[in-house]
Write a structure and sequence with these properties.
about 160 residues; mainly alpha; about 85% helix
Length: about 160
């Protein structure tokens, strides 16, 4: 790949991280306060929901960091090595963790009769997006391992 492509991808990862961090710092607390004032019967859920959202951001940022590492591995022309398999595995684990956290959150909110249909749709979309990322990472990880095995067998036959 060209240097411009790597610069663009690294910039995109950085921008995603900055936007997510700024949303978590500035938008989420004010949105939680607004929702608690509009629906006082659900005000007791303000901090538990915020804490749950912040817990789900931790694996998201770790996955962003791993994707940044994966870009560095590819840039250093070591894409077909174990150095590229580990970030994919970590991204898969992060996506599964996010899926589990949102599934637990939706179940708890449904049990408390506090699951608004809009929140349910957004939560289910996040769950399915995380599942797709986990499956895609697992498939890429297996393909990469197969390629590494083929390369090592090819080196032995020469």
């Amino acid at each position: 790949m060209q240097l411009r492509t790597f610069t663009f991808l690294k910039s995109a990862v950085s921008i995603i991280g900055i936007v997510t961090l700024s949303l978590c710092i500035f938008v989420l607390p004010s949105l939680a306060g607004y929702t608690a004032s509009m629906y006082p019967e659900f005000a007791f859920l303000k901090y538990p929901v915020l804490i749950g959202l912040y817990f789900s951001v931790v694996p998201f940022f770790f996955a962003l960091y791993q994707s940044y590492n994966l870009l560095n591995v590819i840039k250093n022309k070591k894409a077909f090595s174990e150095l590229a398999v580990m970030p994919l595995r970590n991204i898969m684990i992060c996506a599964i963790t996010i899926t589990a956290l949102y599934t637990i959150g939706i179940i708890i909110l449904a049990f408390l009769n506090a699951l608004h249909p809009g929140i349910a749709i957004i939560g289910i979309a996040i769950i399915f997006a995380s599942l797709i990322i986990a499956i895609f990472s697992a498939v890429l990880q297996q393909l990469l391992r197969s390629v590494i095995i083929l390369i090592s067998e090819n080196e032995l036959t020469i």
